[in-house]
Write a structure and sequence with these properties.
The protein is α+β, with helices and mostly antiparallel strands. About 60% of the residues lie in helices and about 10% in strands.
Amino acid sequence: MTRPAGLARAAEMGDLGVIVAVTAGLGLTVALLGVWAMWSLRRRSIGVMLAVVMVVSVTATLAGVVAITLMMIIEGRVRDIVLSVVAVGGLVGLGVAFVLARRVVGESRRLVAAVRHLPFTAPRGLPAELQTIANTLQEANARERALEEARRELVAWVSHDLRTPLAGMRAMAEALEDGVVSDPATVARYHGQIRLEVERLSAMVDDLFELSRIHAGALRLTRARIGLADLVADTVAGAEPLARAKGVRLAAEAAHAVPVEADAGALGRALGNLVVNAIRHTPADRTVVLRAGVTAGMACVSVSDCCGGIPEADLPRVFDVAFRGEAARTPTPDGGAGLGLAIAQGIVEAHDGMIDVVNEGPGCRFEIRLPLVR
């Protein structure tokens, strides 16, 4: 006797509910066991973790299929075929998991072996994520080696720059102490020279301290709304004595109403370093020009000199800590530790700005770009 269509559909829905309940229960059980296994093996190889994931997935599928097959009371040849297909599928899945785990472990070990050899070179042919890690490590290693080289150069030339004035001060102090120099004019000259060298060493130490703060990320800025025209005027006033002593003219071309959010003291020091650098490298009777305005939606202040230009090969390294384009390592008579450009770059970047240099006309042009106040 045939059952009504409604009863048949209800029976089918009931069977479907039983199937869903059984498979969900088995899947949840296997998943919980897998989570427990993953937690227990969390410190093991990533290959083991991947193997556990694949085993959990395959086991959950197999358990559900086998349970449903047995519940449907499939007997004889049909049941054997179903179970055989399920077994083959499970073995294939586990085999794939084993191969994948071995490859991941092998590539990870290859990456670790490469890391242990310095300088580090990223191996090729790794999986995408491991290749990204390897490339990042190679870039970080290259930066670290560059910084280490810069530190060695910095220590070398700072030691030289410190030794030279200290040797002169020691000789003058010994001459005064031993009475070798006794006439008042020479004594006064020695005292003045010693004071000058002390001021030069003090400025060098201040520059080193400022640079160390910048590199350590300890530079604290007190930002306020300032105008570039005022900043340029203050910088020109501060550098005027040095320019006059060198015979260099200073000129300013500053547009009004160019506001920026900046630390006036720190930004003034950065601009002052550029101006002092320009004055030192500009011959007498030539002009250093400061310009301030807006370019491409950014506040810009530039310093143009008449130094004769910078060799193209040296331009990318002008702001490096330990780089000096000239061969001489002796401090200039007007003082300075040779760190002004590196300090200027650190201060500008701390203001979310950019600093650059290009050869232009009879010399070069240093340019600072800062975000405008909206």
